[in-house]
Amino acid sequence: MTRKRSASAPLNAAGSPLPGEPAFLAVGKLRHPHGVHGEILMEVYTDFPERIKPNTVLYLEEPGDQVTLVKCRPHHKGLLLTFQGYTTPEEVGVLRNRILFVRRDDRPPLDEGEYYHHELLDKRVVSDDGRNLGVVTEIIETGASDVLVIRPQAGPEVLIPVNDTFIQDIDLDAGEIIVHLIPGMIQEEP
Fold first, then answer.
1. How far apart are the first and last CA of the chain?
2. From the CB of residue 80, how many other CB atoms can be counted at a distance below 10 Å?
3. Which of 70, 74, 186, 190 is the most exposed place for a label (fewest CB within 10 A)?
4. Would you place residue 127 in the very low, low, confident or very high pLDDT band (cuts 50, 70, 90)?
5. What does the pLDDT average to over 39-68?
6. What is the average pLDDT value for the chain, to the nearest integer?
7. Same domain, 144 and 96
């Protein structure tokens, strides 16, 4: 997602993510073994599959479970992965349907004005004329541009496309997104 970056999301003094900032980010879901040498197909969730390289440590959803990647290659719309210690389809099959994660601090940096979706969730949304619209509860990915789903304190959700016409500023430090509204975007009270 791209937008002008006002500030980056810092770590707290202990180096831990700030509240609401995930410690791990999902990169894909393991599907089924492939072939006879311990490969497994991964459905890709990440926009950065290039970060999945040999010797990368990946984490499974149960705390403490991790695997080290030995080999990775593209296969149709996914990736075929080989992990250290898994050499047969039966061994790697126990990982079927598990989600793979990378550490948050291992994620690639984004260009200026780009944001990870989780950075925008729970941010307060204010119109450029000062109206408090609510908080971002979801981001819908469409073909044209992402759409912020904003939950107000009362009334129906507000949908704001993420583009320069509507998003005026994103300030992660202040926890605020300033948007420009056009007639019909929000339901006015009678």
1. 35
2. 18
3. 190
4. very high
5. 85
6. 83
7. no
| Residue ranges making up the domain that contains 76 | 24-106
**CB-CB contact of 42 with 79 (8 Å):** yes
**pLDDT above 50: residue 14:** no
Tokens of 115: 């944001």
Q: Give the 3-state secondary structure of residue 41.
A: strand
What tens digit of pLDDT does each residue of 82-111 get? Answer: 999 999 999 999 999 999 988 877 666 677
Judge if 98 and 134 occupy the same domain. no
The CATH number that applies at residue 48 is 2.40.30.60
Nearest to 25 by CA among 53, 1, 44, 2: 44
Residue 77 in domain = yes
Which CA distances in Å does 62 have to 67, 95, 125?
A: 12, 11, 34
CATH number for 164: 2.30.30.240
Which helix (H) or strand (E) segment is 169 a member of? strand 167-171
6 with 171: CB under 8 angstroms?
A: yes
